[in-house]
Amino acid sequence: MASILRSPQALQLTLALIKPDAVAHPLILEAVHQQILSNKFLIVRMRELLWRKEDCQSFYREHEGKEVEVQKVALGTRMKVS
């Protein structure tokens, strides 16, 4: 195991979040998956989550108080931004 961690080809993990609007359309979701795979990423685990507003706010806390934070929380929970 230690030799794997020292290897220049060690596995790196990347988190991909796909917005609810894309997940709602099977063809768009498939296109996103194909784009990920065509860029030589390997999908090792996939899970569908339903985030509450509080979950999104916690995830984007570093952007708190900025307009971008409001938009990301709205997109992540399908809220309408006024």
Automatic annotation (TrEMBL):
Similarity comment text for this entry: Belongs to the NDK family.
GO biological process: negative regulation of cell growth; negative regulation of mitotic nuclear division; nucleotide metabolic process
The entry's keywords: ATP-binding, Kinase, Magnesium, Metal-binding, Nucleotide metabolism, Nucleotide-binding, Transferase
Cofactor(s) required for function per UniProt: Mg(2+)
Record carries keyword Metal-binding: yes
Protein name (record): Nucleoside diphosphate kinase-like domain-containing protein
Ranges where the Nucleoside diphosphate kinase-like domain occurs: 13-68
One GO cellular component term noted in the UniProt record for this chain: mitochondrion
Coiled coil region boundaries: none
Domain of life: Eukaryota
Molecular function GO terms recorded: ATP binding; metal ion binding; nucleoside diphosphate kinase activity
PANTHER family to which the protein is assigned, alphabetical: NUCLEOSIDE DIPHOSPHATE KINASE 6
